[in-house]
UniProtKB/TrEMBL annotation:
Name of this protein: HTH cro/C1-type domain-containing protein
Organism: Izhakiella australiensis
Gene3D superfamilies membership: lambda repressor-like DNA-binding domains (1.10.260.40)
Keyword set, alphabetical order: DNA-binding, Transcription, Transcription regulation
Domain HTH cro/C1-type stretches: 16-70
Origin superkingdom: Bacteria
Signal sequence segment: none
GO molecular function: DNA binding
Length: 138
């Protein structure tokens, strides 16, 4: 049983290192994005522990990779899980927004999402008014 746990830690260590390399993130970057200590990420990288529970779910949500990916052996690859080609590349502003968002308390995150939704609706309403005004002047 101990050998299996060590193998699991080694595998997750490989995957965390792969993730850091492919995304060009430092251990500190990943820790901040996940809201965990740098020491936790360092232990994952070294293979002395592996992400579990909420932290594993956060990793999955952050990366868009399924939780089981972090425990797949290095020789197990599928085209659907190519880490080097995430669905959408974020620009620097989008990454900064995510970094700031991840640092907020959960309740405040919900509040910010609502604010953004309201702002988009406000712009849509304003655009509709401007279009209607333009059509009246024709």
């Amino acid at each position: 049983m101990l050998a299996m746990k060590d193998t699991t830690k080694e595998t997750s260590s490989f995957r965390i290192n792969q993730l850091l390399h492919e995304r060009r993130w430092s251990q500190t970057d990943l820790a901040k994005k996940l809201g965990v200590s740098s020491q936790a990420v360092q232990q994952w990288v070294k293979g002395s522990s592996s992400p579990r529970g909420k932290n594993l779910a956060k990793l999955s949500n952050l990366t868009g990779l399924p939780e089981h990916w972090f425990f797949m052996a290095a020789d197990e690859t599928t085209e659907a899980l190519q880490i080097s080609s995430p669905g959408k590349i974020l620009d620097a502003r989008q990454e900064r927004l995510i970094e700031l968002f991840e640092q907020m308390p959960e309740a405040e995150k919900d509040h910010m999402v609502r604010l953004f939704e309201e702002k988009v609706k406000e712009y849509e309403r304003l655009l509709s008014e401007l279009i209607a005004l333009k059509n009246k002047t024709k």
